[in-house]
Amino acid sequence: MNHDISQPVPQGSDGAQDAENSRIAAIADQLERLCAQQNVSCFETEQRAAEQMAKSQGFWIPMMDIFNLGVPGPSGNENDTYVGEKVIYKVNNLLNSGSIIGLLHKILMHNTLFPDTAYSFYGFAGFDGRTIQPVITQPRIANAHPATKIQIDTYMAALGFEKTTQDGRFRNSQYEVWDIVPRNVLVDAEGDIFVVDAEIKHIG
Fold first, then answer.
1. Contact present, 135 and 122 (Cβ < 8 Å)
2. What letter would DSSP give residue 5?
3. Which of 49, 57, 135, 186 could in theory staple to 144 by disulfide, Cβ–Cβ 3.0 to 4.6 A?
4. Counting Cβ atoms within 10 Å, is residue 88 exposed (0-12), middle (13-18) or buried (19+)?
5. Which residue numbers in the chain have pLDDT < 50?
């Protein structure tokens, strides 16, 4: 196993984010290789491989310890959140992505498109031998409130995206992103916009 992927990389520079993205990609690649070697379903294989990886490399979180991450925050369709001093911890149930590998690839796309709210991989949480939930972190945006639709449209246009006929859905030549709605986009006291959650697929 590649033990270089076991610890989160502190953020704060492009180099640090590149290193963290490489670490996330390495975890996804390792899970994909393990799935390809098995005859059982990929979902079950990646669940057990993720548990083994996390325990051997020091990023396993027993589910009973999950409340130690921070103060419980709002829960959505896909994430339960826990608020820390500087970051938000998101415990992902894989409902939208369908698999750990799918989630990690989506995280990498998010980090490419929205580096101000780039995710880091924190660990895997669960009960022994049962369903595993990835835990990811994101910078906490202080003193922020939901952006308006006009602010969102303006921001996405500045990033080179075109608005589609569906509310909150945008496209460019490479990506389609959706669920870009006020509950997932924040504006801080200085007027800066932050996309904190989005569904993304590669189309180019």
1. yes
2. G
3. 186
4. buried
5. 1-12
